[in-house]
């Protein structure tokens, strides 16, 4: 069941508040705060699960990723794929 647009501010607020709690306390907080609204509870729990599984954005600096790239090459006139 999709979340009604009017419930999204509540979902976001509950999610953000849950993030301030220790991981073991989050489930009980969400359950208590959502009461009988199972759709809101499910969405907040889904968001928390995604948050916990996410890795850091750009954990490796781009300079490290490009360390082996030869940036001194002159590509003028070279064909790269279908592009000149």
Description of the structure:
- The chain has helices spanning 8-19, 23-34, 38-53, 62-65.
- It has 84 residues and is mainly α.
- The model has no long low-confidence stretch (mean pLDDT 82).
What is this entry, summarized?
This protein has 84 residues and is mainly alpha-helical.
List the topology elements.
Blueprint: H1 8-19, H2 23-34, H3 38-53, H4 62-65
Question: What does the overall shape look like?
Answer: elongated
How would a textbook summarize the main sheet? none
Q: Fraction of residues in helices? A: 40-55%
**What is the residue-mean pLDDT, rounded to a whole number?**
82
Quaternary form: single chain
Q: What keyword list fits this structure?
A:
mainly alpha, 84 residues
